[in-house]
Design goal:
Layout: E1 5-10, H1 17-27, E2 38-43, H2 49-56, E3 62-66, H3 83-88, E4 93-96, H4 99-104, H5 109-121, E5 125-130, H6 134-139, H7 142-154, H8 159-162, E6 166-169, H9 183-201, H10 203-208, E7 211-214, H11 219-226, E8 233-236, H12 243-251
Parallel strand pairs: 1-2, 1-8, 2-3, 3-4, 4-5, 5-6, 6-7, 7-8
Helix pairs in contact: 1-12, 5-7, 7-9, 11-12
The chain binds 2-phosphoglycolic acid.
2-phosphoglycolic acid binds next to strand 8.
Length: 254
């Protein structure tokens, strides 16, 4: 498998400083064995980016991800963090369009298109989140809904830029609920998204893009989900807050 296989942690707004330090210590106290195409991304809150970077610096195959970046390049936007700032401190990835950002902070597909462009202009690799609500899943229109999220936020990008994107499919009904999509449901959506990408950018690009699954991934189910042919790892919330669990998730990468 040539595509990058990624175990991405999404700590969300959790952990105090000392807890973050001890989680990172526990994660890295034993060497982790990576295949050449495997990677860990640590999606930590802004105040802990420097801390996570100091661990990542000493570990190959480990990168740091911010959980958001601003829609504007720089200037009078109190409280915001720009893509340029993140890049300048050595952050590699930025998680954009998480369903919590869409739901609680009003991020639309159009706003996300702006954020993605700025992230790419500043040398960050977006982990672009998409996914449907339970209502949409029950209406059977999830494929079109999620493909439209990609279309409206990503499909204006050049092929050169698009190839830097990582996609994370996260059905909202599976986030933090303990109710994961079945491996078949994940595979079905991932294959569908890959075909939508192929229609826009061609097979070669589609086959090169890593598509992560997110939503109640944990040590016990990671291997089965990541084992699906179109699933290239996961974006992991709750289970990334415990070193043992997250190490098991990493071990589930193919
Ligand atoms: P969860 O969250 O693993 O806790 O379901 C995943 C996410 O929201 O990225």
């Amino acid at each position: 498998m040539n595509r990058k296989q990624i175990a991405a942690a999404n700590w969300k707004m959790n952990l105090k400083w000392a807890q973050a330090e001890s989680l990172l210590n526990d994660l890295f106290k034993q060497p982790i064995h990576f295949s050449p195409n495997q990677q860990v991304a640590l999606g930590v809150p802004f105040p802990y980016l420097s801390m996570a970077l100091s661990y990542a610096k000493n570990h190959s195959h480990v990168e740091v991800a911010a959980q958001n970046s601003a829609q504007y390049a720089s200037g009078a936007y109190t409280g915001e963090t720009s893509a340029e700032m993140l890049q300048s401190m050595g952050v590699h990835y930025v998680i954009l369009g998480h369903s919590e950002r869409r739901e609680y902070f009003g991020e639309t597909n159009a706003v996300l298109a702006e954020k993605v462009k700025l992230a790419l202009q500043n040398g960050l690799a977006p982990i672009f989140c998409c996914g449907e609500s339970l209502t949409i899943r029950e209406s059977g229109t999830q494929n079109e809904y999620v493909a439209n999220q990609l279309k409206e936020s990503l499909f204006d990008l050049s092929e050169f830029d698009f190839k830097k994107i990582v996609i994370a499919y996260e059905p909202i009904w599976a986030i933090g609920t303990g109710k994961t999509a079945t491996a078949e449901q994940a595979q079905e959506m991932h294959a569908y998204l890959r075909s939508a990408i192929a229609a826009q950018y061609g097979e070669e690009v589609a086959n090169s893009i890593s598509i992560l699954y997110g939503g109640s991934v944990k040590g016990a189910n990671a291997k089965e989900i990541f084992g699906q042919p179109d699933v290239d790892g996961g974006l992991v919330g709750g289970a990334s807050l415990k070193a043992d669990e997250f190490l098991q998730v990493i071990a589930g990468l193919k």
